[in-house]
Amino acid sequence: MSATWARRRAAAGAAWSQFTAHRAGVFGLGVLVLIVMLALAAPLLTGADAVDVTKATGERLRPPSGQYWLGTDENGRSVAALTLWGARISLLVGLSAALLSLAIGTVVGVLTGHFGGWGSAVLMRLTDFFLVLPSLVLAIALSTVLGAGAGTIVLAIAVTSWPSAARLVRAQTLTLEARPYIERAKALGGGHGHIIARHVLPGVLPLVFVNATLAVGTAIVAESTLAFLGLGDPVAVSWGGMLRTASTSGAVTAGAWWYLVPPGLAIAVVVLAFTLCGRAAESVLNPRLRER
């Protein structure tokens, strides 16, 4: 067992060394770590009163100044504080939706690739059905039926985005099932649970990890879109909700660019950072890309 863990630690160290060789990936990881730290420290940096409408003391749509670095919103609250607090909801919803989507897709992909048969055919036809549906329209319909809220957005994004992960995992599972060591495990009497847990999942997880880094950015964009359309939690502060409030409160016509730029730029930076990390991780875990 110790030898196995030693090999795993050596492999993890080699993968980290290859990842750090990609400057763009390291830059993206640094940006993500900084944003997560700022989001976690938001209560310490600004306090909960900074986003409380009833305790706002600033002027309406005040431009950036020494007191308010990013100006104020229509209620006199600090846009900088709103951006920090909005990172908490946007990152939480994006990560939760991506993980739930990948969990569903991984289970469906592994089961359909390993077992086959009529059950696999039914699941794949269900996957094709969700693939052809407009994901945004389906997410809007689910959010409308289930009611506005962060949990509803997580469920709506996960339900509409798992088919692509399922197809990727199924293709990788079929490739692994044809490997000699899995054929040998079957010949030696290995059961379905043993083969899936000891051989299929370890070979599939690197692909799932890479897909997760890319899926989080997509989920954050989807969350911001649904919140902008008014389907998010009306009480919680999020980047998409800030953009919606800015558009409906007259900030656009008033020329209050400081109310629009911070949340929009934050969304773009986070999605770009996740994309850079995903590309770097993909080049590390994919030998063909590493050779190039």
Number of strands: 0
CATH homologous superfamily identity = MetI-like
Query: First CA to last CA: what distance?
Result: 35 Å
CATH architecture: Orthogonal Bundle
Unreliable stretches covering 5 or more consecutive residues:
none
**Number of continuous helical runs:** 12
Which sequence of SSEs, written as H and E, runs from N to C? Answer: HHHHHHHHHHHH
Give the % helix: over 70%
Mean pLDDT: 83
The description of the largest β-sheet is: none
By CATH reckoning, the class would read Mainly Alpha
What gyration radius follows from the Cα positions, in whole Å? 23 Å
Strand content: under 5%
Q: What structural category characterises the helix and strand content?
A: mainly alpha
- Stated plainly, the CATH topology is called MetI-like fold
Shape summary: elongated
How many discrete structural domains?
1
